[in-house]
Design a protein that fits this description.
Helix content: over 70%
Number of domains: 1
Number of strands: 0
Number of helices: 4
Largest sheet: none
Shape: flat
Strand content: under 5%
Amino acid sequence: MTTISKPPVHRVALYQLLLLLAVCIPVALIDSLAACSILVGGLIQIGPQAWFARQAYKYTGSSQVGKVVRAMYLGETGKIMLTAALFVASFILLRQLNFLTVFSSFIVMFPSQWIFTVRILKQKR
């Protein structure tokens, strides 16, 4: 039994998805290729990060510290491999995308992740 509850970090990915859709829908009315590029770049960041969060917070408690450390290493390794695989897949399968826009939306999602994480953890207190 643990006295420290798991933080609700799964909500970060949900909030990021909502933000991504809020950006993509209006952009799609103007330029569907740009919207698709933004969506792909955002999903490439959100998916692997959600995987890491799931792995990192799978275990809690001091009695499971070995499992926590192992899960974090596996989560980070999986995140890096998933990110690389998704970029490669998008380059091969979606050649018509604007890859500058894909990279830009990928990078822009990081500050949103940090902001949502801080806000969620402050709410938890």
